[in-house]
Amino acid sequence: NAGVTQTPKFQVLKTGQSMTLQCAQDMNHNSMYWYRQDPGMGLRLIYYSASEGTTDKGEVPNGYNVSRLNKREFSLRLESAAPSQTSVYFCASRSGQSGSYEQYFGPGTRLTVT
Amino acid sequence: QQQVKQSPQSLIVQKGGISIINCAYENTAFDYFPWYQQFPGKGPALLIAIRPDVSEKKEGRFTISFNKSAKQFSLHIMDSQPGDSATYFCAASRRGNTPLVFGKGTRLSVIA
Lengths: 114, 112
Known about the structure:
The complex is a heterodimer of chains A (114) and B (112).
Chain A: E1 4-7, E2 10-13, E3 19-25, E4 31-38, E5 42-49, E6 56-57, E7 64-68, E8 74-78, E9 87-94, E10 103-105, E11 109-113
Parallel strand pairs in A: 2-11
Antiparallel strand pairs in A: 1-3, 3-8, 4-5, 4-9, 5-6, 7-8, 9-10, 9-11
Chain B: E1 4-7, E2 10-14, E3 19-25, E4 33-38, E5 45-50, E6 56-59, E7 62-67, E8 72-77, E9 86-92, E10 101-102, E11 106-111
Parallel strand pairs in B: 2-11
Antiparallel strand pairs in B: 1-3, 3-8, 4-5, 4-9, 6-7, 7-8, 9-10, 9-11
């Protein structure tokens, strides 16, 4: 049982390049989330998917797109990377069912945009 | 609008002492309040959580105190150890799959 996995672990991009961050969970969770973490800013929600087939914007969605590929996988795409998107990105998942509230995080992707 | 305010930003505690981190929330619809622990280079890990139907929850050396009327909750780490040195985040959400809203974190250093 791997929990939440993310790939890649590290990435360096040049301004304007695109990339997709991958996330998968094996806990049969309905809800999945993408956060970014910057020093002094805590964890800010980018996008989330409450259930398979739905996605919604979070606090900081500009410059990102997401795809809920199936119940297990939720990807985050940067179409044209900017230095302001240098950050650590975390994927998380949660059951989404009544009575089950725990949210679990992946190990993160450290992205640098030069 | 920051819905969960966390303090202090950083905290230094002597080994064996008590670490206290406070959070305040605004949305009275919140009914789930977890604390996460994060070590450098790792993802946040769920430490302990509380629902508003109880005022305190204890797991080992970690205790959450909850004050519904004041809309505040706090994490107490008893007998703090150097291994507890990490960043701690409080969070809150409504039931089900509503996203967690996080505080900005507290960097705890426990010194011998």
